[in-house]
Amino acid sequence: MNAQFLPEPVALPRDRLSRPLRDLRLSVIDACNFRCPYCMPEDRVADGHGLDSASRMDFDEIEALVRGFVRLGVRKLRLTGGEPLLRRRLPELIARLAAIEGIDDLALTTNGSLLGTHAAALRVAGLRRLTVSIDALSPAVFRRLSGGRGDVGDVLAGIDAAQAAGFGSIKLNCVVQRGINDGEVLPLVEKFRGSGHVLRFIEYMDVGSCNGWLREHVVPSSELRERIHAAWPLRALDANYTGEVAARHAFVDGAGEIGFVSSISAPFCGDCHRARVSADGRLYTCLFAGQGSDLRGALHAGPDALEGRIAGLWSGRADRYSELRGRAPATTDGRSRRHVEMFLIGG
Ligand code: SAM
Ligand code: SF4
Ligand code: SF4
Hints:
By secondary structure, this protein is α/β, with parallel strands linked by helices. The protein has helices at 59-71, 90-98, 115-125, 139-145, 152-164, 185-192, 221-231, 296-301, 303-315, 321-324, 342-345, and strands at residues 23-27, 76-80, 105-110, 129-133, 171-176, 198-203, 234-236, 246-251, 257-261, 274-277, 282-284, 293-294.
């Protein structure tokens, strides 16, 4: 059913900067089969790390939670992790979430390594959009960037399997780090322009507390755009919708489009309508939040308690970390405080 025919909730919450709640990014698992050094460095996050299954929300809890968010205005839902394809019976969960009236957009972000096996089942279950992370085409660089665990061939095969299963324009995310994989940018563009998929270059962010982020490692989007433009001329496109995080550009020769996510060089907090929930049911109102707020207690007290809890937390939100970055008193490495780890809330 179209969202406009849904009964309006009593009051849709706005935060202290007047931002509504529109998107939910939900982690279904905190474990991962990769150890990307910018997210989950292998020397800091041991094998076997992760919540026990009793600490993770089960499917009934997840469905009830999502229904609560939808009543408060959420229309877009993205499943993430850790690596979401490691969650057992994920297609069953997707089918339940796809059936919720009011969700206009159901998407999933994955490292793609297991897509070859799961793409068709995800599609049949009702998933409509996919984002696959791919930081390099060179097998050696890719392997290093997966913490020695990933094979770029599996990811490329996964993308092909997803396309064959009916996923149209797949978003491909590449986090660029200077001196690590900036040499992969042009080969990635060459490979995917004209494919119908949309490559997006993401500025390396100071998320979490264990990746050793340094500003020198960030490659500003403007620099990448110039480099790509010199090889394949680009022209800027309008955003598809308010709050779209990627700045869109089309290839002048008609070979599709690419995007740039510039959280460091051009923060977009003013349009941030996104809540994040970890696999154990904690709400984070910002990617850079220090800690989350438990939703499970309210969830078990019933829909009214859940809505009241979410609305109360959202109404108190004033986060705009990326806009303030560098202004707050910093520690020696340029960070002002501890942040939640990316693999707990999924980007
Ligand atoms: N495991 C899945 C994957 O890698 O696609 C989903 C979770 S992962 C945390 C979601 C996204 O966050 C990925 O595209 C990843 O590249 C991105 N990411 C992780 N750490 C990052 C960082 N420090 N800066 C920018 N993006 C980051
Ligand atoms: Fe795993 Fe994704 Fe983090 Fe890489 S970015 S370690 S694939 S959760
Ligand atoms: Fe949203 Fe926080 Fe990112 Fe700003 S820094 S865009 S408030 S998640």
